[in-house]
Amino acid sequence: MTKKEVETLFRQHYAAMYRLARTILYDADESKDVVSDVFVRLLRGDVVVQADKMEGYLMMAVRNRCLDVLNHKSVREQVEKLFSQELKQHRIATRNEDDRLDRLMRYIERELPPLSQKILRLRFLREMSYEEVAQEVGVSKVTVYNHLSQSLQRIKEYFSKEQVKR
Q1: Which of 48-68 are b and which e, b meaning 16 or more Cβ less than 10 Å from the residue's Cβ?
Q2: Which residue has the higher pLDDT, 110 or 164?
Q3: Per residue, what are the HEC states of the chain?
Q4: Cα 51 from chain centroid?
Q5: Whole-number mean pLDDT of the chain?
Q6: How confident is the model at residue 80 (pLDDT cuts 50, 70, 90)?
Q7: What span, in angstroms and rounded, lies between the C-alpha atoms of 158 and 104?
Q8: Domain architecture of the chain: domains with CATH
Q9: Band of residue 12 on the pLDDT scale cut at 50, 70, 90
């Protein structure tokens, strides 16, 4: 199909095609895009249509393209909705984790002796080995082990009791 023939079809059928698209999509810009897409396919030669069936083809092509747009919108909206839900859940989980970490730090500072606090920080925050912690604090490895196991036991007991309360 020549460019001149497509221009003639455009002038003859654009208004009806646009009205159909607008009726289906309720969006002026998307409707214009749909009609343009149909004419672009004609210009590229993607489609060959008999002259006596051109009007029917154009209207059907607009309808089908509109349905594609609506289908794509539906999928996009579903993905956006799922993403939004996932993001909300992540925020809640992060907030809960931050809250639990704050409670843990307050408990350690409030309830554990200073030496146990220092050993916990060196072992878990600075990721030092038992031997490195022992050297840093000036105690034996066995003392480090004992402080860690007692501290962890107290923390577990406290938080398991707190879970029961909730």
Answers
A1: eeeeeebeebbbebbbebbee
A2: 110
A3: CCHHHHHHHHHHHHHHHHHHHHHHHCCHHHHHHHHHHHHHHHHHCCCCCCHHHHHHHHHHHHHHHHHHHHHHHHHHHHHHHHHHHHHHHHHHHHHHHHHHHHHHHHHHHHHCCHHHHHHHHHHHHCCCCHHHHHHHHCCCHHHHHHHHHHHHHHHHHHHHHHHHHC
A4: 48
A5: 84
A6: low
A7: 10
A8: 3-73 (1.10.1740), 112-165 (1.10.10.10)
A9: very high
- How high is the pLDDT of residue 26? 86
What's the first-to-final CA gap in the chain, in angstroms?
74
Q: Identify which of 74, 76, 72, 46 has the alpha carbon closest to the alpha carbon of residue 61.
A: 46
**If you count them, how many residues does the chain have?**
166
Q: What is the mean pLDDT of residues 9-23?
A: 92
Q: What is the mean pLDDT of residues 10-23?
A: 92
Burial class (CB in 10 A: 0-12, 13-18, 19+), 13: buried
Give the span between the Cα atoms of 72 and 37, in whole angstroms. Answer: 15
Per-residue tokens: 62: 């607009």
